[in-house]
């Protein structure tokens, strides 16, 4: 296969490989199944968020409220189930959280598609409002006795093993959720007309309107979809941690957006791939989990991530500019 | 013809915020007919296109398609009826491939929920074959040249069995050869029974393909006749409501001593034995095709192009113009193409706009600006150019188009030139402001400035200039008195 050096994906892939090589050189135990499972497990929530962000960026918008939506959906679902004391299986809890997430996504859609307000401003507003509403009216207490259904889910193990030293390691079934989200979103984006419409409105909303694409309808779908994925990511986060902390998740949004942008999605809309997004997520998760292995203080994480963003988005832009100048 | 026309507009009116854009517009288009919609900027052409595309709804009147009346079309039923608009910006998706762009509308109307890459490519291939065009199907549209983008836009229109293709200013960004191949495609469409509504203000190409010309002015149809009943002059007259052959140039004293004399001016490969004189108050036109040497002459007069031979005299004294600084010192101002229409800071005050080029003349020892001096200077210019503005502190954007043009000219004049060379003074200007600029030119000349106007726009030269020099191959081949010739004949002499 021919390697395309102008693609973000290539660059990010090389950085991921280099990072792994470096970490292995410092600590050979890095290159092992337990580490891999650990990284995969840590990328579930970020990965699902990132797929949602990818969709929004392709459509030409941006969403920074998804973490607040996730926290709200996750916490209010847990609280409801605990308060009511009913014993629903894990998928019942998931369905409720996804439903709440979708509803909050629709709130974004009302402002964005209905009132045609700028997406960044709307979602900055809802980020703050949803979080404030959650902490003020729903609750700010940690719930550590999560409902049995959610606890059951955290025990569903897909793969397990024991190291030579006798440590257990495992990959939870929650990882399958990421796989399903990735597969479903890939199908949506590339195989359905709706997906192509999302690309189209990101490429040129005015052109799309002129040939009869219902731009508002597509936007409503996009923000509802992101809301649903946020609800899913939130409940997975709480289930795996077996604790619902209303202060969790918010604050992650910028590194998730960073992962997606690193993977080649453009903030101006119309461009972005699932492969690139997953590589971006891999890089961000890798950086935030293994800098410690390299003996670098964790406060340096954000510096490294920032440098990667500048490099990862700057280099292709620079190459494109040079190519354009050469073409005259 | 007695059969039902493809499309008939009946007394369509539309206003925006109280401003009448269209009033009682009626005309019809038959199948396989090419109709030209001609009109100046702001005449209502764009609104009309949007109504046909279903993007705007008329306030009154109706659109009759195949005998069926609609109070308003919407984009979907407009497309379903076979009406396809190719907007000036093409409205393509830069991030999608050629094949996807071509097939997008067809996929939208097909009702498919899933996309099939093979079906999309086959459709695109098929349409491109119909217009005998080859463009790589998998290329992203953003990587294509303008002419190819336009072909993609046409192909997309045809992918939907278009019966009326509306092309909005399709030739503005094309080279002459690309225009010819576009016209060939239009003929092929007509032969296949597709009607074309061609919106353009480039008159020559209109005559090549259109059977009928509908002229709108200020939102009303002023003329609707077969193309054969128009010529360039009458079309320009209908579009503008003015006769351009009528000269706006004011009399000057032909006996006055020459301001500028040029004799035997030459430069190998560009200019040959150029000689003429310019008197105060005179407007001298220079006409010529591209490469005729007209721009070279302007540059030589402004010290931008060194000459090998000949002499330039100002007030009878020979001057050497080795650089623009020499020319400015000698009192020659040069306004290059488009400079009259660009380069205003719209949100800034008139005073600032006028003074921007001359700030050093008003800066004190520490770089402080002499604001009072600036304001006085600006007010002086407002008066001299009769700019209709309350004072020099209002932002330029609050002025009308014509007054904005005056502000630009004031900036060029602030340096105090005695001779002004204007290259293409009204390129890209709509006809209303154009007439304003012509008036300004006449005013300047009346102030005993010598003005040289270089232009592609022959009616403009005829209207503004006392004399027109025709250039060809670097030589002045003819001198024509302004107002004594019509545009068609001047065009013929340029080309002969």
Task: Identify the notable features of this structure and list them briefly.
heterodimer; A: 328 residues; mainly alpha; ABC transporter involved in vitamin B12 uptake, BtuC; two-stranded antiparallel sheet; 71% helix; 3% strand; B: 496 residues; alpha/beta; Rossmann fold; 2 domains; 6-stranded mixed sheet; 16 helices; 33% helix; elongated
Description:
The complex is a heterodimer of chains A (328) and B (496). Chain A has 328 residues and is mainly alpha-helical. Chain A has a single domain, classed as ABC transporter involved in vitamin B12 uptake, BtuC, CATH 1.10.3470. Helices cover 71% and strands 3% of the residues of chain A. Chain A has 13 helices and two strands. Chain A has helices at 8-26, 33-58, 66-84, 90-114, 119-138, 148-155, 174-191, 193-203, 205-210, 215-241, 253-262, 274-290, 301-327; strands at residues 157-162, 168-172. Chain A has a two-stranded antiparallel ribbon with strand order 1-2. In chain A, a hairpin with a 5-residue loop joins strand 1 (157-162) and strand 2. In chain A, helix 4 runs antiparallel to helix 10 (215-241) and helix 8 (193-203) crosses helix 10. The radius of gyration of chain A is 20 Å and the shape is globular. The relative contact order of chain A is 0.20. Chain B is elongated, with a radius of gyration of 26 Å. The longest helix of chain B has 16 residues, at 176-191. The mean pLDDT of chain B is 84. In chain B, the strands form four sheets. A six-stranded mixed β-sheet of chain B has the order 6-7-8-3-9-10, sandwiched between helices. Chain B has a six-stranded mixed β-sheet with strand order 16-17-18-13-19-20, sandwiched between helices. Chain B has a four-stranded antiparallel β-sheet with strand order 2-1-4-5, covered by helices on one side. Chain B contains 16 helices and 20 strands. Chain B is 33% helix and 24% strand. Chain B is α/β, with parallel strands linked by helices. Chain B starts with 6 loop residues before the first strand and ends with a helix. Chain B folds into two domains: 7-240, Rossmann fold, CATH 3.40.50; 260-495, Rossmann fold (3-Layer(aba) Sandwich), CATH 3.40.50.300. The interface between A and B is medium-sized, with 22 and 24 residues.
